């Protein structure tokens, strides 16, 4: 939005698609779903940016929808806090379909990166061994947020994306300790690293030959995660089928 028209032309256009569900009592998850839709409503109708950026929330994301979206995706984001084991198997499905990953060293991301190679994975964020220490630093008041992170929160609070009160969601990222406070998932800490990873994505995407090579190597290296290998290993090691 702050770029000149010339600068915008040099950017990598993106359609950001986010899908998910929130159980009835997962209040903050529902606030995130609402925020994605509210941001999309503004971005997608702004003539200055909507030819370079679109934001789409995919309702009722399920296997049938995934069968369409995963083969058509070029970048998938698996950005759970390292050590939480929240990054499951959908990243394998994306990788098998030639989609590159931007992610943390969490869950299946770790194994995928080992198989496809560091240079074919856009890594960011704290590692699992640092998470507990970073939380303690936060409790001591030693964390200093990135100015861009503060600016994003300020913009949401300004009402730029509608009149809904997002303070309870934003407050979970603030303070140093306490229930629902203190940014337990280190979103603020990982934010600058995430932004840098996305800059690397933009640069890589401009080089079509490089991107396609990374995509092919990602698919080729994901063979370990095929159902054939998995079932064979179960048959051999667990079920003892002769």
TrEMBL record:
InterPro entries: Glyco_trans_35, Pyridoxal_P_attach_site. The keyword Flavoprotein does not apply. It comes from Genlisea aurea. GO terms for molecular function: glycogen phosphorylase activity; pyridoxal phosphate binding. It catalyses: [(1->4)-alpha-D-glucosyl](n) + phosphate = [(1->4)-alpha-D-glucosyl](n-1) + alpha-D-glucose 1-phosphate. GO terms for cellular component: cytoplasm. This is Alpha-1,4 glucan phosphorylase. One of its GO terms (biological process) is glycogen catabolic process. It is an enzyme of class 2 (transferase). Belongs to the glycogen phosphorylase family. Its cofactor is pyridoxal 5'-phosphate. Allosteric enzyme that catalyzes the rate-limiting step in glycogen catabolism, the phosphorolytic cleavage of glycogen to produce glucose-1-phosphate, and plays a central role in maintaining cellular and organismal glucose homeostasis. Its EC number is 2.4.1.1. The keyword Glycosyltransferase applies. Keywords: Allosteric enzyme, Carbohydrate metabolism, Glycosyltransferase, Pyridoxal phosphate, Transferase.
């Amino acid at each position: 939005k702050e770029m000149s028209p010339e600068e915008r032309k040099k950017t990598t256009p993106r359609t950001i698609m986010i899908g998910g569900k929130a159980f009835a009592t997962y209040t903050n998850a529902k606030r995130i779903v609402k925020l994605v839709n509210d941001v999309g409503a503004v971005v997608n109708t702004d003539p200055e940016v909507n030819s370079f950026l679109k934001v789409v929330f995919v309702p009722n994301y399920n296997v049938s929808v995934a069968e369409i979206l995963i083969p058509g995706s070029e970048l998938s984001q698996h950005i759970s806090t390292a050590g939480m084991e929240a990054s499951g198997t959908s990243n394998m499905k994306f990788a098998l379909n030639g989609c590159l990953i931007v992610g943390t060293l969490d869950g299946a991301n770790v194994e995928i990166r080992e198989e496809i190679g560091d240079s074919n994975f856009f890594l960011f964020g704290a590692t699992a061994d640092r998470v507990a220490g970073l939380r303690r630093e936060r409790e001591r008041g030693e964390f200093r947020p990135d100015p861009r992170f503060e600016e994003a929160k300020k913009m949401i609070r300004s009402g730029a994306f509608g009149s809904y009160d997002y303070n309870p969601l934003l407050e979970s990222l603030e303070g140093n300790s306490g229930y629902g406070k203190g940014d337990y998932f280190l979103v603020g800490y990982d934010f600058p690293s995430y932004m840098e990873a996305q800059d690397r994505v933009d640069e890589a995407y401009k080089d079509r030959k490089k991107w396609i090579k990374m995509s092919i190597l990602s698919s080729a290296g994901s063979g370990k995660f095929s159902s054939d290998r998995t079932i064979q290993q179960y048959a051999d090691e667990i079920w003892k089928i002769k």
